[in-house]
Amino acid sequence: MKTLPDNPDLGHLRRQAKDLLAGLRDADPQVTLADAQTSLAAQYGFRTWADLKAEVDRRQGQADVADPALARQIADRFGLGEVTGPMRSLARPDEMGRRWSLETDRGRWSPRTVDDVFPATDGAENTRFQEAAARAGVVLPAPVRSRSGASVESIEGNRWRVHEWRHSGPPLAAPVSATITYAVGGTLALLHGLRLPANGVCPWSSVPLWTVSWARLADTAAAKGAGWAAALAAAVPVLSELETVGQGAAVPEPVLCHNNLSPGNVRLGAGDCLIVTGWEHAAGLPPAWELCTALASWAVDPRGGVNAAGARALVDGYRARAGALPPLSVDSFRGAATGLLNYVAGQAGAALAAHGEQDERHADRTMRHLLTHLPSRTTYQRVLDAALTADETAPAGAARG
């Protein structure tokens, strides 16, 4: 589920709805802006656009303000200049930490805590990857090294990273227009073409990290009176089926990948160029796995509908940059399926531990949305078939599931 920022901007949401409209019209030219607004509201966990607007009004001015001493320490440690205003939170904490905005006499910056990055890293390899991607032409908020040259600094009990602030529109939302998915495919091919070595395949995308069965987890949720327990029980067959995706298949050689190139981590900048954020999870993946994860993220809407034009454009953009596609099959969605299952298990654990009205309300909305919008093996097959429909242009190595 998409999460509203701490101080949401209705203008940004209207822009997101218009961007989403273009993707929806790839599949159905009759879709209206009102339809796109309703779809976007659902992605944020609300029934109607009016409900989403009401939440925006309720949350105005609710960003947290950091201790000024902390802001000064971050600015000093990373050489950002003199602080000129309050350091304000941008969004509620996520699975890694929390994002903030900081202004100094040298510009605007985006510090964030990275206390729970998995797998744990000092950020050095990650920063080198971002710097190599920028040199190759990927547009991104530049990572800032500290005065000591480190990517991560421990300050006041938290691990901090900083990026330059880059002006852009709001994050994108799936399904996205074919024009944009073509550019996404090209960006993936460019990153894979760097061929930066990886220390194995990211365990988040390859190793089941949950320790109990889905049925048992559903029983635990029901025993605790969780409002989403019934949704989890109903989703057990789909979750169990997703566990089988790619099991037993050979794992191709990994390279260093972005590992989270989803619509929520891409914004449009000047001239509609893609600005890629969210590099903290960069890790080793087979290129085929990341390409199939992108197909599931960019060309499948939350209700399971496939944007065939967007899927074809994504692989066309990849092929145009790389010259060929890696061999693709349903097994190539293993990283997408395993990562999703690890995320569901983690969110369920966080929801069961939530306390306080606001956190419990957010957890309930998150889990209900997540469990009722799961893809299936059939979803993966459909988006792959849509991507590879043009047999004349698909390379010989691109096998169908």
What are the SSEs and their pairings?
Blueprint: H1 10-27, H2 33-43, H3 49-59, H4 68-78, E1 88-89, E2 100-104, E3 107-113, H5 124-136, E4 143-144, E5 153-155, E6 158-164, H6 178-193, H7 214-223, H8 229-242, E7 255-257, E8 266-268, E9 274-276, E10 283-285, H9 287-298, H10 308-322, H11 334-353, H12 357-371, H13 377-387
Antiparallel strand pairs: 1-2, 2-3, 3-6, 4-6, 5-6, 7-10, 8-9
Q: Your description of this structure?
A:
InterPro entries: Kinase-like_dom_sf. This is Ser/Thr protein kinase RdoA (MazF antagonist). By secondary structure, this protein is an alpha+beta fold. Helix content is 44%, strand content 9%. The protein has helices at 10-27, 33-43, 49-59, 68-78, 124-136, 178-193, 214-223, 229-242, 287-298, 308-322, 334-353, 357-371, 377-387, and strands spanning 88-89, 100-104, 107-113, 143-144, 153-155, 158-164, 255-257, 266-268, 274-276, 283-285. Strands 1, 2, 3, 4, 5 and 6 form a six-stranded antiparallel beta sheet that branches. Strands 7-10 form a two-stranded antiparallel sheet. It has a two-stranded antiparallel sheet with strand order 8-9. Helix 1 crosses helix 2 (33-43). The chain is globular.
